[in-house]
Amino acid sequence: MATEAATTASKFPESDLRPIPQPPDFHPAIVVPAQNNGLRFWQLMVAGSIAGSVEHMAMFPVDTVKTHMQALRSCPIKPVGIREAFRSIIKTDGPSALYRGIWAMGLGAGPAHAVYFSFYEVSKKYLSGGNRNNSAAHAVSGVFATVSSDAVFTPMDMVKQRLQIGNGTYKGVWDCIKRVTREEGFGAFYASYRTTVLMNAPFTAVHFATYEAVKRGLREISPEHVGREEEEEGWLIYATAGAAAGGLAAAVTTPLDVVKTQLQCQGVCGCDRFKSGSISDVFRTIVKKDGYRGLARGWLPRMLFHAPAAAICWSTYETVKSFFQDLNGDSNAA
């Protein structure tokens, strides 16, 4: 045994056994997992669908207040601030009015977010080239995701907003769909699609780039997360990064959200009806009636909606993804 040890030592001198020097910025403890972590496309869609539904349902009352603030009309209310809008809704229609249109949201949010997150993950995989620090790829992937998901979500979003401010104009989701189709035509469901895409393209670009950057930064500065796989980061990092991304993206895109609300609610309960779907026409009308401050209507409830909503959405999405990863791991082991 001693002879074998001596022979091994002679073959590998002590100088050859020293650790290989690494560059100063090398961090061996930070592990970057493979893109998508082996999840199937349908699993990404299910995770996105659950996350989107939970997010929008949980924050729906805040969205209702925002919609009332953004709709220019003479009846029944013309709120100025969050408190005034909330009190007016409760006084006029009661607490249940805060949830009017929630079924339309439920019907649209699930499928739309299934498309949203699955398209994002697939686009990110191919555009980033394996580089998780590629913010440009994250932003472009977000734009691809929103163009696709908005085509699914816009019709139900229009129904949702009309029910939110309708004050009894429609009996429910199906009544709204039938009446809009009969009275205004199918195109009315997509009257705001162009504005929605123009709003959500920068929104998602900022949102996804910020989310990935904040998540990466939190992972690197948190001692308890150094060396852990991404799926083990925990809901706190997902929620914090999501809240930062949602709040920032919401703030910078509020003017286009006001235009979108005007287009979707035109002709309902005193709201203006526009001769064309021109964004510039709506802009001019808002500025003429309410000044430039009208373009910022609802910015605070919009931020109050998107910050916690994104926190809920991302933590739910990543948690469901982790569940599928564990499930796939158990299946492979079996």
From TrEMBL:
Highest taxon above the source species: Eukaryota
Kindly indicate whether the keyword Membrane belongs to this entry. Answer: yes
Any one Gene Ontology cellular component term annotated for this protein: mitochondrial membrane
Q: Which Pfam family name is an example for this entry?
A: Mito_carr
Keywords, A to Z, come to: Membrane, Mitochondrion, Repeat, Transmembrane, Transmembrane helix, Transport
**Any one GO molecular function term:** ferrous iron transmembrane transporter activity
Each Solcar repeat, start to end? 39-126, 133-217, 233-323
Broad class of the protein's primary localization: mitochondrion
Which GO terms of type biological process are on file?
Answer: cellular respiration; iron import into the mitochondrion; multicellular organismal-level iron ion homeostasis
Entry's family note: Belongs to the mitochondrial carrier (TC 2.A.29) family.
Name-wise, this protein is Mitochondrial carrier protein
**Native source organism of the sequence:** Eutrema salsugineum (Saltwater cress)
